[in-house]
Amino acid sequence: MSQPSTPAPGASRPADPRPGGGSGSPWAAGGTVFAGVLLFVDGVLGVLKGIAGIASNDVYTRINDYVFKFSVTSWGWIHLVLGVILILVGWGILSGAAWARAAGVVLASLNLIANFMWLPYTPVWAIVTIAIDVFVIWALCTDRSNPRDQVRSS
């Protein structure tokens, strides 16, 4: 029975081609950077959605009997605040900040819930945002590599 060979002292091992040094899937590692971009873009869209709701009550459809009924202006402020925070967290993920992953999962979850409640006002936009948030949550929860390594290697 043969023993596996060990590299000689001082010999280097072949580099692992996966982002982040080999821990986790390359899809998840690339997904984390993409999740940062999506959070940033989702935040910008949330800010625009919020400004539209605050500026004019006639931009979005009025709903008469709805369980989660707020005024369109109130929804505008909710989306504006969430959008600004999403922009900051998206930037944090792209910068490789350690706090940004956990904050990204929490804020993407809150944004998902807010857009689910916003569904009757703009169904297509809300569904697209929900899908983006689901991807962001998956990407941030499945990648185990160091986010700083991903940004540097890009």
Give the percentage of residues in beta strands: under 5%
Distance between the termini: 44 Å
What structural category arises from helix and sheet content? Answer: mainly alpha
Total helical elements? 5
Q: Helical proportion? A: 55-70%
Main pleated sheet? none
Number of strands: 0
Element pattern in H and E? HHHHH
**Oligomer status:** single chain
Shape: elongated
Whole-angstrom Rg: 21 Å
Q: Are there runs of 5+ residues with pLDDT below 50, and where?
A: 13-22
Mean pLDDT metric: 77
How many structural domains are formed by the residues?
Answer: 1
What does this structure look like?
- This protein has helices at 26-55, 72-95, 98-118, 123-142, 147-153.
- With 154 residues, it is mostly helical.
- The protein has one domain (32-59, 69-153).
- Helix 2 packs antiparallel against helix 3 and helix 3 (98-118) packs antiparallel against helix 4.
- InterPro entries: DUF7144.
